[in-house]
Amino acid sequence: MLFALLKTEILGEMMQAIPPEDMTVAVLRKGINLDRFNCGDDDLNSFLKSDAFIYEEKKIAKTYIVLYQNEPIGFFSICADAIRLSREERFDEFGVEKPHADYPAIKIARLAVSKSHSDKGVGTYMVKQAVGKTIGLSEQVGCRFVTVDAYPAAIRFYEGCGFVRNLAEKSGTNASMRLDLIDALRH
């Protein structure tokens, strides 16, 4: 289930995918030219070109750039998080009543693909990268979930990557979603 190819009825006809081995992930740094990056969302574009550096400096989020042919084609930011599971979710998860409702997580705080490279598998590649980084971190500190507050238009994309909606969490117009690392490690 996790990272299965997204069905064409979910995202429409996928254009020629970029092979994962042709993309690289780099930590955002000042020397990367971001002038031509445009994902079609002014808020996300502005975050990448100015706010991401401030978030990095203030230790709020770490931003990674995906490069293809030395051109930035996507980015994602991750940060520490915690999610609250409803009583039903806790029982379904553990089979017994658990006293604590909050669970450690890493949040995909921002994720965007350039318009020129959309529908080419870049978004799925970035989710895999974020999950991989979280799995590595979970071997050193307790971390059970990857979370995201998905824009309404992106809910089906995240569902296709194995995320489910959180019952106890609300995120305004966005959907609070999670991916269980234990399930991710099984697949």
What does this structure look like?
- There is one protein chain.
- Residues 1-13 have low confidence and may be disordered.
- By secondary structure, the protein is of the alpha+beta class.
- The protein has a seven-stranded mixed sheet, with helices on both faces.
- Helix content is 30%, strand content 28%.
- It is globular, with a radius of gyration of 17 Å.
- It has six helices and seven strands.
Q: Pairing-aware structural class of the strands and helices?
A: alpha+beta
Total helix count? 6
Query: Mean pLDDT, rounded to whole units?
Result: 87
CATH homology group = Gcn5-related N-acetyltransferase (GNAT)
> What's the number of extended β-strand segments?
7
CATH classification class: Alpha Beta
What CATH architecture would you give?
3-Layer(aba) Sandwich
In spatial order, strands of the major sheet run 1-2-3-4-5-7-6
First CA to last CA: what distance?
8 Å
Overall number of structural domains: 1
Biggest beta sheet summary: 7 strands, mixed
- Helix-strand pattern: HEHEEHEHEHEEH
Computed Rg: 17 Å
In percent, how much strand structure appears in the residues? 25-35%
Shape field: globular
- Helical residue percent? 25-40%
Give a quick set of tags describing it.
single chain; 187 residues; alpha+beta; Aminopeptidase; seven-stranded mixed sheet; 6 helices; 7 strands; 28% strand; disordered N terminus
